[in-house]
Design brief:
By secondary structure, this protein is an alpha+beta fold. Helices cover 33% and strands 23% of the residues. The protein contains 15 helices and 20 strands. The protein has an eight-stranded antiparallel beta sheet, with helices on both faces. A five-stranded antiparallel beta sheet has the order 6-7-11-9-10, covered by helices on one side. The longest helix has 20 residues.
Length: 492
């Protein structure tokens, strides 16, 4: 028996000395632009907080960088870091609690918007007017709540701040494995830094969101020239409309390029307002055709979009589900089918901000620039945002008009360089009007542009190092700006 015990001990010791299998590198990319292919050291998908904490502790022991993603829609490289231990949060997607008295929901940060809306409705089947979300980002749905917080996203609200206004608190797992509660009163500096801080201060594990009562909204549609838009926005706000935007014409050959547009606004209606089952809508095939038309025949694309929206004038929608939008990661398939020789590429977004009184001058300068440089603008919209006075890296420095533009980027060296210059010129035009731009979508801004729009940027990078001295949480986005501002960071 003693000999058997010795043999067993030797066997177990030998097994324990067998090295663990090497991690498998994985190439990841963003869903939308497909311009951020990054090989990470390994991909982990934790399903519990304990698993997540174990990953962070292992990264500390092995001195690994950590990158974090949710829906992988961000286009600026915020979610990936080369040779990092990559944490995919999509499996941490539960609704943890709903306070039906105060309208607050606690969720794991990996949950996406459609799942959150659906779960809230399931939990309140007995309520005639259940609680639901206030605002989500537009264009695509499967972004995580943690991602929306990290970018401080916004939606189509007519009189709201960015996403920070809806966040009551969150839990943050730091580089030392400690989880802390963060709110406007607990660790307030971290509250300001993490919201809109692009995942550089830790992993957001759960979020407490403020909700609003689900309501019915009537869509009112009008075709307007840009000059009438400021007055139309002001009138709708005074009349109690909650959401709205202006989709402008992208046909550079037209006299009313960037001028004509479809203005849609949504007004709350009594809860007993009928909602017919046969409402007009565009099915996925129609959206794909419209996407292809936006590339191949911009005049016809605008007419198609305009006519469809005018046909929905007066339709009634729910305040939460009307914010959902059809998205297909392979939109280009229809374009390839109709135009096989169209240069390979993707859409890339830029978001620019100017004071409303400067909107006309800004759009006029953009039209001249795009025509002069043959910029391929596919889609554009104008929304409103209220000043964000809460986050450190605030992009809404004042009440702004938000101009969102999707440009076609050709996936070639020449095409990428052309696009970089186009995005830089657009930023210059916004800055000339005392405006700004969103850091989320690309890394093509020049250093002088970054500092003019975000004079606090160097201090932001210094605070990142103060809270994460080992620089455990990284991304290609962070590495880009760390290099750009290396001299400033090396100074006192």
């Amino acid at each position: 028996m003693r000999l058997a015990g010795i043999c067993l001990a030797i066997f177990l010791a030998a097994c324990s000395s067998v090295p663990a299998p090497a991690p498998t590198p994985v190439e990841l990319n963003d869903v939308h632009s497909r311009l951020n292919a990054t090989v990470v050291r390994e991909l982990a998908q934790p399903t519990t907080l304990a698993e997540l904490r174990a990953l962070i502790e292992r990264a500390a022991r092995e001195n690994l960088s950590i990158s974090v993603s949710g829906g992988r829609h961000a286009m600026g490289g915020q979610q990936f870091a080369r040779d990092a231990l990559h944490i995919d949060m999509s499996k941490l997607a539960r609704v943890l609690a709903l306070d039906r008295e105060h309208g607050v929901v606690s969720v794991e940060a990996g949950i996406g918007w459609p799942a959150l809306i659906e779960r809230l409705l399931e939990m309140q089947k007995d309520d005639l007017q259940p609680w639901s979300i206030i605002q989500k980002q537009t264009g695509a749905d499967e972004l995580s709540i943690g991602g929306a917080l990290s970018a401080n996203a916004h939606g189509r609200g007519l009189a709201w701040k960015p996403f920070v206004q809806d966040v009551l608190a969150f839990r943050l797992l730091q580089a030392d494995g400690r989880e802390i509660e963060v709110s406007r009163t607990q660790h307030p500096e971290l509250f300001r830094l993490v919201i809109g801080g692009y995942g550089l201060f830790g992993v957001v594990t759960t979020v407490d969101l403020k909700l609003q009562r689900r309501m019915k909204l009537r869509r009112d549609v009008a075709v307007l020239p840009l000059a009438d838009l400021p007055g139309a926005f002001a009138a709708r706000i005074s009349e109690g409309y909650l959401y709205g935007d202006f989709q402008f014409k992208t046909d550079e050959r037209a006299d009313d390029f960037l001028i004509a547009g479809v203005f849609s606004a949504y007004q709350p209606m009594p809860l007993d307002t009928p909602m017919p089952a046969d409402q007009l809508t565009l099915d996925p095939a129609a959206w794909k055709r419209l996407f292809a038309l936006a590339h191949l025949d911009k005049a016809r694309a605008f007419d198609t979009y305009r006519d469809y929206y005018l046909s929905t004038n007066g339709q009634v929608y729910w305040s939460d589900t009307h914010q959902l939008s059809y998205y297909d990661a392979d939109f280009d398939a229809e374009l390839k089918r109709l135009a096989p020789d169209y240069p390979p590429g993707s859409l890339m977004i830029t978001e620019l901000y100017v004071p409303m009184k400067k909107l006309g001058a800004f759009m006029d300068s953009v039209a001249r620039d795009m025509r002069a440089h043959d910029t391929n603008l596919i889609y554009g919209t104008i929304r409103l945002i209220r000043r964000d006075d809460e986050t450190f890296l605030a992009w809404a420095k004042e009440d702004f008009a938000c101009i969102v533009m999707n440009l076609r980027v050709e996936h070639s060296d020449t095409g990428l360089q052309k696009s970089a210059w186009e995005f830089q010129r657009l930023i210059d035009l916004a800055l000339e009007q005392n405006g700004s731009y969103f850091l989320t979508y690309h890394r093509w801004a020049r250093k002088d542009q970054v500092l003019k729009a975000y004079p606090q940027f160097v201090e932001f990078l210094k605070l990142k190092r103060r809270y994460d001295p080992a620089e455990r949480f990284q991304s290609e986005w962070y590495r880009h700006y760390r290099t750009m501002f290396a001299a400033e960071l090396a100074g006192p």
